């Protein structure tokens, strides 16, 4: 184990990921704001597209947010025509969200913004280091229970 006293905070993976993550999240938020979206809206759209969750309760668990926040996010996305809500025929108390064609368009726009940021972040790394970074981040995300 490293001598913690010798290592600077700014050299730790946690600090660097956190700082770069905050900067990147702000830039992503700016890029998607023109579509009337915030990052959690994009996350909900991506989650629906992945098929990992459909009900508002499942989405709340997957996104690690309160169900009331999902309701607010879904309300906004419904106003934009990005999602539809349907009652689950098997459980009338359960609302299922579906992605509409407009939702797919908005998700594609969010993905475009993310790809632009990816290119900027990995510029100068070269193909092999950029691929290694993507792979390492995928492993870390999976270990944290994030959908792929």
Q: Which keywords apply here?
A:
mainly alpha; Arc Repressor Mutant, subunit A; two-stranded antiparallel ribbon; 6 helices; 2 strands
Structure description:
This protein is mainly alpha-helical and 148 residues long. The chain has one domain (26-143): Winged helix-like DNA-binding domain superfamily/Winged helix DNA-binding domain (Arc Repressor Mutant, subunit A), CATH 1.10.10. 63% of the residues lie in helices and 10% in strands. The mean pLDDT is 91.
Radius of gyration: 18 Å
The proportion of residues in beta strands is 5-15%
Number of strands: 2
Q: Largest sheet, described in full?
A: 2 strands, antiparallel
Summarize this entry quickly.
The chain is mainly alpha-helical. It contains six helices and two strands; from the N terminus they run H-H-H-H-E-E-H-H.
Lay out the secondary structure.
Layout: H1 13-33, H2 39-50, H3 56-63, H4 67-79, E1 83-88, E2 91-99, H5 101-122, H6 127-143
Antiparallel strand pairs: 1-2
Helix pairs in contact: 1-5, 2-5, 3-4
